[in-house]
Amino acid sequence: MWRRAGLLKDPAYMAELVKSVVNNVSIPVTVKTRLGMDGSNITILDVVRRLEDAGAKALTVHCRTRAQVTLVSPIGLGFQD
Predict the structure, then answer these.
(1) Cα 5 from chain centroid?
(2) Could you please report the per-residue DSSP string of 42-69?
(3) Is position 73 within any domain?
(4) 5 touches 66 (CB < 8 A)
(5) What pLDDT sits at residue 47?
(6) What pLDDT sits at residue 30?
(7) Is 52 exposed, middle or buried (0-12, 13-18, 19+ CB in 10 A)?
(8) How many independent structural domains does the chain possess?
(9) Is the pLDDT of residue 4 over 70?
(10) What is the pLDDT of residues 43-54, one digit of tens each?
(11) Residue 18 belongs to some domain of the structure
């Protein structure tokens, strides 16, 4: 079973989870995701289409892959991701 960014390995399952949430809550469902698992596996276009079909009302794309782990903030404050 996938969790967190690992859901990007299975866009169909990710959409199934979102659809289940959409069907069981009365508030808009939003999703934050990444571009893909790594540079060789950019799946965002497939994910976006599936999540839209599943009923997600908004999508935020964290514009990096899972493999691009940020260890230090861009402005050098040393925050951990």
Answers:
(1) 6
(2) B-HHHHHHHHHHHT-SEEEEESS-TTS-
(3) no
(4) yes
(5) 93
(6) 96
(7) middle
(8) 1
(9) yes
(10) 899 999 999 999
(11) yes
Provide the mean pLDDT of the chain: 83
Instruction: List all residues 6 or more positions away from 78 whose beta carbon is below 8 Å from its beta carbon.
Output: 72
As a dihedral over the C-alpha atoms of residue 53, residue 58, residue 62, residue 65, rounded to 10 degrees, the angle is: -10
Query: 56 with 22: CB under 8 angstroms?
Result: yes
Structural domain of 23: 4-62
Distance CA 11, CA 36 (A): 10
CA 42 vs. chain centroid, Å, equals: 12
Mean pLDDT (whole number) for 22-39: 92
Q: Please indicate, yes or no, if residue 46 is contained in any of the structural domains.
A: yes
Residue 34 identity: R
Domain-embedded: residue 24: yes
Please name every residue paired with 30 in a beta bridge, in sequence order, or none if there are none. 58
Q: How confident is the model over 68-77, as pLDDT tens digits?
A: 776 545 555 5
